[in-house]
Amino acid sequence: MAEWGLHAIIRSPKDQLYEEANHQHHDHEDYFGSIDIKKEYDQALVFCFPHLFDHHHDHDVATTSTMETVHVTDELNQLYKPFYNPIPPPPAAVDNIQIIHHHNYHDSDQEIQQDQEQEIKNFSGSASNTSQLAPKLKKRKNQQKRVVVQVRAAGLSSDPWAWRKYGQKPIKGSIYPRSYYRCSSSKGCMARRQVEQSCTDSSIYILAYTGDHNHPQPTRRNSLAGINRNRFKATPKSPVNNDVGKTVSKSKGSPFHSPTTISASSIEDEVIQQPNIKEETMFHNNCDDQGHTMMPGINDEDYVVFSDDFFEGLEDLGGYKMESSSYYSSSNQYPHVFC
DNA sequence: CGGATTTGACCAGCGC
DNA sequence: GCGCTGGTCAAATCCG
To answer: What is the sign of the dihedral through the CA atoms of A125, A126, A127 and A132?
Structure first.
């Protein structure tokens, strides 16, 4: 049961992908090396989702199967974009989550860790003011651990963590601004989230998670004040931001003058209007009993469960990367290129 | 009043 | 070195 469920979710597409890759594009053998991608991938799945293969967790698998798809992609999709024409998934598959892209490492994890440790050492001498030092402990951009997912609006709002917005920027090449959130569940938490609306499909939001939470997942959202500010009130200040033309913005003449924020509150305004979405599921405790992170989905049945080990384990597999095995998508879009 | 959002400014990384 | 761009800061503002 577990296996067919996962096959339905993942295996079939990635089977297709690696077959495409192996049979059609030997030019890229250097990229893959000589590893058995399929085998390694399956091992990775077991390694990273052991509970899904555990018969004690059949329920998890059963519910996961309703999610229809977990899309994971990366350079491989880019690599084979001109050649690979994925079979469109069932319509329901467009909903929920697409894990696009996990990292921006250019160096190895070990090197990054060493860098971090060294940076910490460099500052440890005057650690009495860690709050001021914290911003200086930034990784270089290309070393930031990064998880990118695509979600529908509902998936975005169902994120269990409490996020506080701290910035918004227009992004070159996108008509939508990018909003920056930090975790407000705990002071000093370095977790960050970026929310960006796909300009190819305004109903899709691209979430980029960076940094790690330094605290347990909240049992409930503990910062609802801000999140709920506009939930039950469709004020002109918080329009649903699916259509730039409808955007209401403050008249400040800023060059940014961006559409009103893609904020949790505005998104939830939209979600509430969707009759199929149960509001209470958006605030459900998404932490499972094993401490796995549960990514947002439409409802409880649609959460994707994975841990950091998931990606780390996959990256350790013979040099190929987790996101190397995936397919896309209902619109044949390769999510790296959102515009 | 406390906490969240907004938004212009600032800063650092990166490419040329 | 310079300019562009993205990420963050922080004061102002908003809202319950």
So the answer is: negative
For A119, the 3-state DSSP assignment is helix
Quote the pLDDT of residue A97.
Answer: 58
Q: Residue A323 corresponds to which tokens in the numbers above?
A: 């996101």
CA dihedral A219, A289, A43, A331 (to 10 degrees): -30
For residue A158, the model assigns a pLDDT of 63
The reply to whether A250 Cβ lies less than 7 angstroms from strand C is: no
What backbone torsions phi and psi does residue A170 show, to the nearest 5 degrees? Answer: -70, 140
Token pair of A164, please? 């506080």
What H or E segment, with its residue span, contains residue A21?
A: helix A12-24
Nucleotide nearest the Cα atom of A263 (by C1'): B5
CA A94, CA A329: separation in Å to the nearest integer?
A: 7
Distance spanning both ends of chain A, measured CA to CA: 39
Q: Is the distance between the Cβ of A256 and the closest atom of strand B smaller than 7 Å? A: yes
**Percent of chain A whose predicted confidence (pLDDT) is above 90:** 2
- Burial track A78-105 (b if 16+ CB lie within 10 A, e otherwise): ebbeeebebeebeeebbbbbbbbbbbbb
pLDDT at A259: 40
Give the residues across from A146 on adjacent strands: A210
pTM given for the model: 0.49
Label the pairing between strands A97-103 and A163-170: unpaired
Q: Determine contact, residues A9/A96, Cβ cutoff 8 Å.
A: no
Amino acid identity, position A10: I
* CA–CA gap between residue A259 and residue A195 (Å, rounded): 13
DSSP 8-state class, residue A296: -
Nucleotide nearest to A141 (CA to C1'): B13
* CA atoms of A93 and A310, how far apart (whole Å): 22
The answer to whether strand C lies under 7 Å from the CB of residue A83 is: no
